[in-house]
Design goal:
- The termini are far apart.
- The protein has 16 helices and 10 strands.
- A two-stranded antiparallel ribbon has the order 1-2.
- With 495 residues, the chain is mostly helical.
Amino acid sequence: MDVIVWSRIQFAMTAVYHWLFVPLTLGLALVMAVMETLYVIRKDEFWKKTAQYWMKLFAINFAVGIATGIILEFEFGTNWSNYSWFVGDMFGAPLAIEGILAFFMEATFFAVMFFGWERVSKRFHLASTWLTGIGASISAFWILVANGWMQNPVGTTFNPDTVRSEMASAQAFWEVVSNPVAISKFFHAITSGWVTGGVFVVGISCWYLLKKRQQKFAKASILVGSIVGIIGSGAVMLSGDASGIHAAEFQPMKLAAAEGLQDGGRRAAFTIVPGIKIPGMLSILATHDLDGYVPGINDILNGYTDNEGNVIPSVAEKMQRGRMALDALAQYRALKDSEPEAAAAARAILDENVQYMGYGHLEKPEDVVPPVGVVFWAFRFMIGLGMLLLLEMLVLGWLAWKDRLSDKKWLLIAALCCIPLVYICGQSGWVVAEVGRQPWTIQGLLPVNVAISSLSAGAVKTTFFLFLAIFTLFLAIEIRIMIGAIRKGPETENE
């Protein structure tokens, strides 16, 4: 258990640090591309200098983010080798495509974007800026295809001869790529990055207004940043709605935990905070039907009938059938060469129960219940902070448009304070997504306790503290460099 706990802590720590850099990369990529587009259209040097300033901060963040992302991928092999073996046929494909296509695309056009201002034409440079951002988004897409498969494993079949989950055809690959969970997660992650970039740009620009510096630059940046953030917030809501539907369909326990819903039913209420509920709202959010049935934790444990009339077995029955599948797998592998008929009979039992095989590794039905308190409050932090940030961008964007922001000192300070809040909001979303699917590494197929590598707890602890020190150093260096760049300011006139 120590190895499992420490491996989970190490992976979570690496993922948390990595997600400090990714959303800002995605958000700043759009902000600077919009600003450079304004420069090319208007032929105004002011927008060129403005774009170059935010591009400098983008480059600092981009460079540090790469290091954490590489380590995160390596940990699949070092800490989760059984997982890597089980899903290597599927999981390796999107990660390879991400590395070969997206990463090289980013690196190539990043070089042109950052160093090619005076070496290529305006339009080619603009295309490079947009393609750098598009490359970052494509990179995120393939990562989230892999993550979406972990939430909803489609397009693969279990091969008892290799004991792996494999893609049998090109059609299966496209089923993985078009996984609805992956698609909604991709748009949710990308647009949340727009919100992060918008809030960051608005907050930093407000600092310049507080200091009475580069006010034209600051007001223009607030306008662009707030528009990007507002559009991102709207898209986050739409993709979040799709994610709720998919959670209800594919991961009902995650939804029940996020709501703290012990006993479900029709016209289920949405809990704002304990004691304050909106009748029927959860059914609408989860099924788009006021009378839609939403199972609670107890319903999932004991078995229920879903909205399509399908009878969902209890967890205890799934565990029993999962153990039948594991026993049949062992018999098949032992007998396939010596007793073909007996092996065929074992294979038939395995095929009948293979969808529950992961449950055979659980000790008790309650193991499928994630930490309800953590998921419940993370969900509310995500939604509450998201609404607060949208309000902030609407107000500051409007006041900047009307040129009535310079004397609103308390609003400018509040905008600065919103920068850490947008990161808490994003991290809360990932807590819901990842903690909410525990105990599964792959939903319904592979629990965490089976996915682990054969390592000593001491080895994992050592690397945890080593990575913690390295990542903290990276973050401190990035913050210091960024603060230096912010204090120096853009190369625009101080007006």
